[in-house]
Protein 1
Amino acid sequence: MSRRLDVDVMLLSAYELASELGARVRRERLRQNMTQRTLADRAGVGRATVARMEQAGSATLPNFLAVLAALHRTGDLQQLLEPPPVETIDRFVARSEPQRQRGRR
């Protein structure tokens, strides 16, 4: 998979998305002119953890968040954690299709 900045993450599998996030961590580390060792020390993780994250997209959530904090990029999570927009009653009533209550299987 080519590494472009404009990859549409909505089209990626979970494995591809993890790999893309690892590549983005690497690009940001290099943009900040940091070695893997420096980033690992600042994040409180091992250098091998950073290398695995960058190459395979493999990391635990706490390690990934520690690396984001060390890169000063935790603010990028703000949109992810915001609640969905509130729907007006008029829009709710105007919906033409009923919402599914359960899956077929």
Protein 2
Amino acid sequence: MREPLIIQAGMGVAVSDWRLAHNVARLGQLGVVSGTALDSVLVRRLQLGDPGGHMRRAIAKFPLTQVGERVIEKYFRHDKTSTTPFARLPLPSATPSRESLEILVLANFVEIYLAKENHDGKVGINYLEKVQAPHLPSIYGAMLAGVDYVLMGAGIPREIPAVLDTLSRNEDTTYGLYVADAQPGDNFRLKFSPREIMGDKLPTLNRPKFLAIVASNTLAIMLAKKISPPVDGFVIEAPSAGGHNAPPRGKLQLNERGEPIYGVRDEVDLVAMKALGLPFYLAGSRGSPEDLKAALEAGASGIQVGTAFALAQDSGLSPSIRAQLLKKIATESLDIFTDPRGSPTGFPFKVARLEGTNSQADLVAARVRVCDLGYLREPYRKTDGTIGYLCPSEPVDHYVKKGGAIEDTVGRMCLCNGMMANIDQNQWQASQQLERPIVTLGDNVECVHRLIKKYGAEYTSQAVLEYLLNGLAETSPTKEKSVLDRLTP
């Protein structure tokens, strides 16, 4: 398999949706869908009437007809209004119901099936290691649809390569679950059995490649040399990348804006990465032909690009949000803040400051707290040895009652609901409030300036690829020819 030069990043909740990944993959680069919360995304698309019929078309291709029929019967509707609440799924759990497992498998199948439909390009799916409960059924669903790559960051995904091996053989598998306050002798593990879902209809599956998203040489070395099987490659993500960033090494220090300060210790040694002998990609402010050329010269296989694709016309981002962002970028008035406290995960999180979104502290404070999606809840060991769940962004009294420290709740935002609002799937809450977006982008938006100047504000993912690859061909004509000359859309 020829390694791609460009990975289109798996961003947010369905910002990197099947359309974006499809368009990138059919042009010969790696299109990646976001695997976060796909179960909720699928059932909300159905509740919005499934415009274009794409969900139902893909569901019809799922190997178990009765599963798809049950999901359509329960969630498909035509009468959803902005003040009609979306039907909610059960919160993610270490012991999910059969229905929850089926929807996770189905949702991941649907997204990958649509991303791969009618072309032979390569498609990947991106997961957050920290969102552990859905891992096994999600990955299996993506593999049922023929996913080519799995990417994972926001944690230490040491068990994923072995999981891919096991699931490719349709065998029962487990995954270590991090549980706060676990005691010596505890062994909390997630379990998944393909046969329990598929019965005797166990298909032949290909084992996808696995790219670990890392921010340090130490983690890369461990994943390359100290686990079996090793990872297949890396995405090296700098702290200028959008979304969650790895915390700075050493004692946390903030600049005058209140953002974490990164230093020399947070830089990755690319010479050492090259010595590992595995493909690696550079991410974080890598959105220009010059960045691609520099990455190749440093020994990388290419770059991962997020912000430029997130603002392309064919991404899953709300059109109204995209328009606001592009206007601010064009007038050089967009402020992106690395918030050290906003995310309930404890990881720094980049927030694009936009009016009417939860980038405004007063709107965050006015929101009535509710935890009705629960993807970022942390499992903890209760006194009786069972697992409970808590989130610093949930109602404060609930968090404290479970043993959480009240100071941990200060400044926290509900990323789960905010990210769903980014794709126009805002929940109407019982408090008579419509959830507001929380938009994230990388620090460097210069690439978007260039794209707007060259292609206009309604540029597409194809324009991003043309800009990057034709620009590379102009500086290194023997290295890469025009993507549009070489590939037929």
Protein 3
Amino acid sequence: MQRKTTLPPLTIRGYTIPYPIVQGGMGVGISWDELAGTVSHEGGLGVISAVGTGYYQNFAFVEKFAKNRPFEPQNFYSKTALIEIFKNARARCGDAPLGANVLYAINDYGRVVHDACVAGANIIITGAGLPTDMPEFTSDFPDVALVPIVSSARALRILCKRWNGRYKRIPDAVVVEGPLSGGHQGVMYEDCFKPEYQLESVFPEVVKEAKNWGNIPLLAAGGIWDRADIDRFMDMGASGVQMATRFLGTHECDAKYYAKLMPTISKDDITLVKSPVGYPARAIMHGVLQRLQEGTAPKIACVSHCVQPCQRGVQAKIVGYCIADRLGDGALGDATNGLYFTGANGYRIDKIVSVKDIMNELICD
């Protein structure tokens, strides 16, 4: 039963989400079947991260290991495991819309997008790069909605021109993300702190650009925390919001160590770090980041070959850690070697609650 709210539903390519709240995709192992399936069950859009599906409880689906890690992209991005995650999520949410998040910077991007369609994703969201060829990999699945993440009006303009010219298609919705989000950012390190790159400044510009391409639903993301934030951006023209960090503080978060970690951190524990992906990333000064400061971080061996910009470990050695190994350790609850992403508001999580509690708080006036 839909709960009483003044928030309108969100419609993306024929899929109706009762409440205009999209749970941001978080990997490795943070938003998989339990979290994403529960969010969709509670009326939002649950989003399964396709990153590192060969990790965590899914080792059984990995065909080849090296150094106890999923070997090469076909195992790190396991199709069999992704299908299993979707099957388990469907058991929680039934026929409700369910999304997948596939980073553009990964190796095997096109294959993983296609795998997500096979697994049953209704909506695919892509960030960490500008997915100019995204529609190419979903041609066999015309009903799947495509939602890129942009951080500027210029990026949206480039994307729409390319998609319209090549594929006679424009995005079914667009996530507009500011630099307060967790994980990888869409701007350079120094720009993350400039007023003109903040979501409040960027969003109105994207609204204007979107009007040139039709009625594209826009989702505000990056630092969205409460109902006041939702109302503020919907008043600015948003059709909904994407939120990730709030869901780190839930019982249903698939990476269970976050329930122990999040209530203990302060604002000063959250920092921007360099990443092998080539973008600055927001993370908690914990685990491997502390070991980097101490000079005791684990040695780097590129086993999973997870992202193109890393160049098989070249960039990992420059920044001091392998992102696949360390996010994988984080999903496994390794407090010493794990890497833990969060948005700028992560320190506001003071207790662990249910997804239902958060949804009730967000939708009720």
Protein 4
Amino acid sequence: MLNEKIEESNVHHNSLSTGGHILYIYNDREKYIENATNFIFEGLINNEGVIYVDHKVYIDQIIDKLKDKSVSETEIQNISFVESDLFYRSGFPMEKSLEELASLADPYLEKGKVLRVWGNVRIQEVSQVLSYEQKADKFIRNLQIYTVCAYDGNLISASLVIEMLNSHPYFMTDSFLIPSYLYNHDESDSPSISNQINLEKEADNFMMRSEQLSFAGQFAAGICHEIRNPLTTIKGFFQLLKDDNHNTKYYKVIENELNRIQQITSELLLLAKPHSEQREVHNLVNIVNEVVVLLESQAVMKSILIEKMFMSQDLNIVCDDTKVKQVIINMVKNAIEVMNGGRITIKAAKVSNNVILMITDEGPGIPKEQLHKIGEPFYTTKKDGTGLGLIISFNIIKSHGGTVKIHSEEGKGTTFEIILPTVN
């Protein structure tokens, strides 16, 4: 939910990919429980540590919600649940609360785990709340921690919210998450004019990339039109020659090359028009299982283990299953090609109204300076690649109402995260 909302806002400064300090003002109790449950559930899917501080009645409700999502008792026991009355005890002792947070976080951080912390903060004195949040931001800033500081909107003033936005890079309500443009952890920083200019430049780059995608589609359609007609004639006459001549060793080569040209034109056509009229309800679990059966032998030949993890067996989406399968095949094959031994992990789960599929490899990763180019038309890191495979995959997912995100760390591997709308 959090990653999805920040993607929609198209903002990249203060990136949530390495953690974030979020101010959450809630008004709807049901939405609050739903958002808190999704926050924990995402952490479990990503194998992250989770610390959750809240009123006991909310903790009990969230545990019930997690069980509804088929989270096991063992996984629930691995979550650090802390009652807020104990955490913020004795008149909100700021230093004591931060010390307790540090002691709870240490075991996770020592293991190198990414950590999620949720705290439903009790308001005592306003000055102490502001001081606490400022010190908490300093504590969080240099660590890979996702922290939500939740406040009851019925008990907090608008002026206090505005002041707290100075110490929180992100602001969240029951229905959206956006960057806090008031956040400035370094008083020596220049005013927000510079930040705004950078954001506008990034928006321009986004529009330019959209235009490139549109051009690539039109270009592909033109190529298909020009190539397909002569291909039909060539294949027809080739068949006549083949029937009249016994020297077949060259014809096999020619036939393979013609088939290759036909395959390229089909891929270009997918780039131009990834939409399909043959869409039905399919279970993503079945699609993934079919892909693994297809590619497992290739993986075994390179000493690679493909591991599947489904948080639910009921992950229904409306799709053209052959095209979604093509996307998964493309991403898993890419992973196999860049690895020599290791593990490819495919995780799938239902989060809110979406199905999330994550394909993680243990390959060399993608350098930061190249990561933003992945998915651009005609850009490829492969020696013999065309750069069309991923862009076709992105277009297919986009045409199904979904999104694709890439997370990569050089030397450790890459994760492709596919988000698709689910059906009941």
